[in-house]
Amino acid sequence: LDSMPEDVDWPSAEKHVFIEDVLLRVLNKQVRQYTGSGSTPMTYPLKPVVEEVLAISKEEHDMRTAKLCEAVLNAIDNRPEDNYVAYRKGLGVVCNKKDGFTVDDFVVEFLGEVYPAWKWFEKQDGIRSLQKNSKDPAPEFYNIYLERPKGDADGYDLVVVDAMHKANYASRICHSCRPNCEAKVTAVDGQYQIGIYSVRPIGFGEEITFDYNSVTESKEEYEASVCLCGSQVCRGSYLNLTGEGAFQKVLKEWHGLLDKHHLLLQACELNWVSEEDYIELGRAGLGSCLLGGLPDWLVAYSARLIRFINFERTKLPEEILKHNLEEKRKYYAEISLEMEKTDAEIQAEGVYNQRLQNLALTLDKVRYVLRCVFGDPKKAPPPLQKLSPQEMVSAVWNGEGSLVSELLDCIAPHVDDRILLDLKSKIRAHDPSDSGNVEKELRRSLLWLRDEVRNLPCTYKSRHDAAADLIHIYAYTKHFFKIREYKAVTSTPVYISPLDLGPKCADKLSGVTEYCKTYGENYCLGQLIYWHNQASAEPDRVLARASRGCLSLPEISSFYAKAQKPSRQRVYGPRTVRFMLARMEKQPQRPWPKDRIWCFKSSPKFFGSPMLDAVRSNSPLEREMVVWLKNRPAIFQAMWDREMMC
């Protein structure tokens, strides 16, 4: 562009077309002798390319283009310090048809091996486990989703077409941010197929491209996936980043961990599908193909997710527009608000379609696991169950492994036997099991126990004051739930070859290897909570980490040390209490950090928290609970508590 004189009658847009279409087409024609030879140079001089364009324009008496070429050649000759070269881009597909293509011409069908979604992701989990030490985050993929249209009588669904091993040249077509083709699903002889169709005229020698429309939630992967299309409108990456910024704003604000549990608990408690649910699912294009044979609680949960997806679609354009304007104002003085609004709508629609895609992938994975465990997925019971009042008493007060029994075990080494026996006797007297209002009496008993524990003398190894605070939080938790664990299952093997690992990792395998995925007892629960993210091979473990504090309260043993010396993690001073309250009030859906005094069970028998109660009732935390924690006097302060305050 810098070599083109400003006085020629060439608008900026036409100069870009000259570079992207005319120069690139002639360049690809000149270097075709290298194709398949393995000796393609890394760079190729542009001078012979411009000379050929000049010769063609003179033959066709196109003096306007000839004048532009002469100006560029003059710059090449007079600016030897500048490097007028094109760089090798990789493998691609160039139009070899003399007459080229017109608009909406069929170019080629996309062929490959077909995988159901669950099996494809099993294979990806296996590939990632073999690539785990790879330093290159850029993905190697030759696959595409074949999506059943939402308007199909049986509704939306999808499978993966993998062109890594068995394919035609369609899978070697490169991405472009300004493509000349698009991938479309069409029905041929009663079967869906993916066809590549031209979206504008394509000339002989022009590269065939389409927009991959692939997305990633990894910023590292996004930045490593550099796009080389050379278009004026190039996004810089052949992936779209949907895991950060404006794309995630509504998800983070309105669909946090507790919100998702609230929706799933609603579906599990009702365990039936309303007419309104079916209407919502139908409007989104979900029908018997995706939902057939699933248990009612799962269909009802899907309907609730669709409502959130629709809600996000209405909110997202405004968030994206706001973000885009802030970014562009850093670099541009003039911005077209109408164009930005249009772009924001297009991006929001892309996120909407991705959400539907991720929901379909999740349902396919969960259906497969339920089939393995129960034979018929419809027989699968809900994964979450609300504790009855008597079950709450057993879990918290008098059952084996209850909160109170664990408290007594922790206290025993730190108090006199006579005091311990007296406390046990009082606890039996305060058992709420036979009360007419068990929940109310359980709270009353816990508040009594809180005060009893606070009266015990603290040491750095026995922080009864901290245990009392936790008992107080339990007292103000209205509902508890248990996870119904399914049986763990191991799937049949998928086969991974060196080719699957990509050229940078292929040497890790000498031949084809088997990979068998094991689905843990809580895999389905984890995948259903993280339905919008397909990147984790073990969503149940991610869920366990994310639940700490906000969903699953700490262990009572957190406050009773076995070590002889205190550590930094054993601080429980005013700053720790303020942090806990700030997290509960202002960031209720975030996990509590593991580098503090609290510890958590990896598989708790039950869960619940005042924060979950607040989300379920759409109300703030109980004021009485918060006020007591803020105003109760400190009864013990260790030396390291004071040091941490400083």
TrEMBL record:
Signal peptide: none annotated. SUPFAM superfamilies: SET domain (SSF82199). Residues 78-213 form the SET domain. It comes from the Eukaryota. It holds the Pfam family SET. InterPro entries: ATXR3_C, SET_dom, SET_dom_sf. This is SET domain-containing protein. It comes from Opuntia streptacantha.
